[in-house]
Write a structure and sequence with these properties.
Two copies of one chain form a homodimer. Chain A has two domains: 98 residues, Immunoglobulins (Immunoglobulin-like), CATH 2.60.40; 256 residues, Rossmann fold. Helices cover 27% and strands 25% of the residues of chain A. The termini of chain A are far apart. Chains A and B meet through helix 1, strand 7, strand 8, strand 9 and strand 10 of A and helix 1, strand 7, strand 8, strand 9 and strand 10 of B.
């Protein structure tokens, strides 16, 4: 069979040459190159360019951009002056003012309508976000029926390694995205499958099912995945959502509990989210009593109304929600975990929420990190929250 | 709950503004705009550019590129002079010689290491490649154990609508990619889930499971999805494949038949592939006797050895394979479908294969289309082949 393999190789060479001639540009240069000392070199072939820059979150402390220098054959290059600490980083090139992806790097991620390249510096936490030689769970994109929203909706579901071949039942973790996301956000930008695979393999997290729905009820699915035009959260679209995420959450719960082998009690259900999803997690856990023993609110005020102090209705709405929190406290739960970065634009409303929660003796746990409203923090929060679940 | 939604909107505006300032560029222009008459306008904001072009397969008969004209605010624009026929088209922009994606179009697809934008002109066959308001199957990325290759390998599996909630068993269609592909190729470029959802909803194809493995045995998964560096098919990498696709195919068969509710007989198994995958389909169906009643060889010579007439060993290897074909013919099958485009660079070897098959009275069916070794043809072949299965 070696023969056939040789022919396949020959065919590949022919086919790629053909394809390149037909449409795509080829690139043989290495970018980014991660050196042993964890400095990184970026390269772009752009013989006609006047100015080439790289923009990315690894340049956090710099002006956010660095200039590449032109070398032989029109290949531009930039090497970070210092080693980078272990992390997952995103970047783009800017060629004469025009933002573009790195054609040499196949690793990309979509954040709503923006696509950027990514790379990972090994170590802690980078290794947790990488594919390692450990058993891998399954990631399924499915559609569930939402009678409340009167439509089929797309959902991403992670089942842990071994799920399919066991008769075991599993706990379920509902993980909600922010305003600028969809049912692909946590799996792509949040590296949920990597993090769960690795935490489970290390014995740090229990095997669990992770359910990642679409929190924008005006859309049935991520852009391009639905038969309707995608409506940005800012509105202006023709279609109003029939109901809110909280009002329709019961449909998701019902779908999961009738389609998966799950443990159907409070001790085996968790809900968490980031930003808008954090507000959803707080609202859902208060609204569905005796349903969740674990709640995570990442980079968002649990009392959402405290975000807009200019709103005349806010005080009344706040007190209404505080009553729900009191009922939630009385019903009991295992963990109510609030996490926020100290430069987050929602930081003050998170602090205000906790002040109000203190007044009613609400039993939350607070974790404060550096930096702000960014995926770097949300991946870390997930990595810290998941190990505390279902203990 | 309207209140919470309003706040989510406000939060989204804040968050996106923040994100844009932090890293990503924003774009409010519409591109591509598909007009009612099916002409298409492309737009790119590039105030500093000297020359902006669009390259794409919709310019098939043209030089393959068209120039955009600069208008107000540095927004460049090009409208196709003629309406486009219904199809899925890929394109990129070229800004001063530098290829880049359209920042206004979230629809993208990866072809190995190249990412391009796509759009669909409605009609036939475009509607078949679109998400319609029909029941949707599930697409799962899983890992199976390959004792032959001594590793876990990634695989994409489509289960038809209703699979999860029935006790029914289903037929299985193994669908193999080409040299320049991986386990994501058929689902992304081939639009398999869309095509199957739509064909099943129209009653044109039977509900079936579609299994899309990775045909490069030197890799465990698509680029970025494995813990090893990705080795292009051209070789040069450190790792030789332990065994070929044909030799290790039994592991996939075993995995599918022990993990899914499937019909386990010849009448309910199909295998097809494009290019290298077509050669795999021919080799696998010959090698596993009485296993497949349906075989599809797209844009590839079923007798792979006829591709390289300069190879001294080819005549002997050809006769060896012809003996296997004779055994396959004797064992019987329902459909052996060969499809090729008349400008395909493998056209002559396909013709040569059929000549040799005629000589032994091998009972194939041939479908000739226009054009060549392109995804447009492979999507059409899939749409024509799937309805013939399991009848």
């Amino acid at each position: 069979m070696k023969r056939l393999m040789m022919m396949a190789l020959a065919l590949f060479v022919m086919a790629t040459t053909f394809a390149q001639q037909a449409l795509w540009g080829g690139s043989q240069i290495v970018s980014p190159e991660i050196h042993d000392d964890h400095t990184v070199t970026f390269r772009l072939r752009a013989p006609k360019a006047v100015k080439v820059e790289v923009a990315g979150d690894f340049l956090y402390d710099a002006p956010g951009k660095a200039r590449l220098k032109e070398g032989e054959g029109g290949v531009w290059e930039y090497t970070t002056p210092e080693p980078l600490v272990s992390e997952l980083y995103n970047y783009s090139f800017i060629v004469d003012g025009q933002r573009m992806n790195d054609p040499s790097n196949v690793a990309m991620v979509r954040d709503v309508a923006s696509v950027t390249n990514l790379f990972i510096i090994p170590g802690d936490p980078g290794d947790l976000y990488s594919v390692n030689d450990v058993p891998h769970g399954t990631v399924a994109r499915r559609w569930y029926d939402s009678p409340t929203l009167k439509e089929q909706r797309r959902i991403t579901i992670y089942t842990p390694p071994g799920y399919e071949n066991s008769k075991q039942t599993y706990p379920v973790f509902y993980l909600l995205h922010g305003s600028g996301g969809d049912e692909e956000a946590w799996i792509a930008l949040g590296r949920t499958a990597r993090i769960m695979d690795n935490l489970i393999a290390q014995g740090k997290a229990k095997p669990m099912i992770v359910v990642m729905p679409n929190g924008h009820t005006q859309n049935a699915a991520a852009p391009g995945e639905s038969d309707r035009d995608y409506l940005p959260a800012m509105g202006g679209g023709a279609r109003q959502a029939v109901a809110s995420m909280e009002d329709s959450f019961g449909d998701i719960l019902k779908f999961v509990e009738s389609n998966y082998r799950v443990k159907k009690d409070k001790a085996n259900r968790a809900v968490a989210g980031l930003s808008m999803g954090g507000m959803h997690a707080a609202a859902i856990s208060a609204r569905y009593p005796k349903t969740f023993d674990y709640v995570g609110v990442f980079s968002a005020p649990p009392i959402a109304t405290l975000m807009r102090r200019d709103n005349a209705d806010a005080p009344r709405a706040t007190e209404e929600f505080v009553k729900k929190l009191q009922a939630q406290q009385k019903n009991g739960f295992n963990l109510y975990w609030i996490a926020c970065g100290d430069t987050d634009f929602l930081y003050q409303s998170v602090i205000d929420s906790m002040k109000r929660m203190d007044e009613i003796g609400f039993n939350y746990t607070y974790h404060e990190s550096g930096e702000g409203h960014i995926w770097k923090n949300w991946r870390i929060y997930l990595s810290e929250f998941a190990p505390m679940l279902f203990r």
